Amino acid sequence: MVKTAGIIIIGDEILSGKIQDSNSHFMVKELRLHGIDVRRISVIPDDVKEIANEVREFSERFDYVFTSGGIGPTHDDVTIEGIAKAFDVKITLNKVIKKFLYKRFGKHLTSEQLKIAKVPEGAELIKNGTVKFPIILFRNVYILPGIPEFLEKKFFVIEKLFDEPPFLLKKIYIKEYEPEIAPYLNQMVKRHKDVKIGSYPVVGNRDYYVMVTLESKDDKSLNLALNDILQKIPRRKVFKVEG
């Protein structure tokens, strides 16, 4: 069975258009390289009840859940509270994180600084030399920051824990319009059940008008589908093949 994941992007700034989300795109690409199929991406506000409801549902539906945002020291950072509410657990002050904060800010921590050390009771910490601040894991929920640079560093640590066969990808760039190749592609979908075939129009390019993608975890199935499609499309219409 293919492992599944759900991504929850948390932040009023995303929903109001102040900040553009890049974290979900980054995580999807990385997860597919590690054989994990992202089934849903949700963007929700900094609201405890909404976070709790979404995290609870995602945790039940998917093997892995990744949250991004809302774990800082300010008033609108309520992700930890929402996750604790989702599983009906208390919030505790983590000694390891508190020690880290002492080293960084000194012994006299403010309530805002201490807020960063709060975790849902029973949470695990993933520590690695490449990231200063430990990653918080509660059950199957990885709690990540919203700042892309910080999230990416932590994600490169997390993804080493996954050991699934990767999704293999081939791309065909075709100088035909979608309606012209649709009959071929519909045939291929029926013939190659183990390969996910996608078709995406490209606008404003002289060399090709459609990008066709083929994905599978099985290299043999992938190449059979690729060769099958290439036999159906005139060679002069194929601009290039990648993968």
Description:
With about 240 residues, this protein is of the alpha/beta class. The chain has two domains: about 5-160, MoaB/Mog-like domain (Molybdenum Cofactor Biosythetic Enzyme, Chain A, 3-Layer(aba) Sandwich); about 170-240, Alpha-Beta Plaits (2-Layer Sandwich), CATH 3.30.70. Helices cover about 40% and strands about 30% of the residues. The strands form three sheets. It has a six-stranded mixed β-sheet, with helices on both faces. Strands 10-11-9-12 form a four-stranded antiparallel β-sheet, covered by helices on one side. It has a two-stranded antiparallel sheet with strand order 4-5. The longest helix is centred in the first third of the chain and has 14 residues, at about 50-60. The mean pLDDT is about 95.
Characterize this entry briefly.
It contains 9 helices and 12 strands. By secondary structure, it is α/β, with parallel strands linked by helices. It folds into 2 domains: 4-161, MoaB/Mog-like domain (Molybdenum Cofactor Biosythetic Enzyme, Chain A), CATH 3.40.980; 168-242, Alpha-Beta Plaits (2-Layer Sandwich), CATH 3.30.70.2860.
Strand content: 25-35%
The total of beta strands comes to 12
Main sheet strand line-up: 2-1-3-8-7-6
Largest sheet: 6 strands, mixed
**Range of helix content:** 25-40%
Count of separate DSSP helical elements: 9
Name the CATH class of the largest domain: Alpha Beta
CATH architecture of the largest domain: 3-Layer(aba) Sandwich
Radius of gyration: 22 Å
Our count of domains comes out at 2
Distance between the termini: 24 Å
Dominant shape: elongated
List the uncertain runs: none
Structural class: alpha/beta
Mean pLDDT: 96
Order of helices and strands: EHHEHEHEHHEEEEHEHEEHE
Please identify the oligomeric state: single chain
Q: Per CATH, what is the topology of the largest domain?
A: Molybdenum Cofactor Biosythetic Enzyme, Chain A
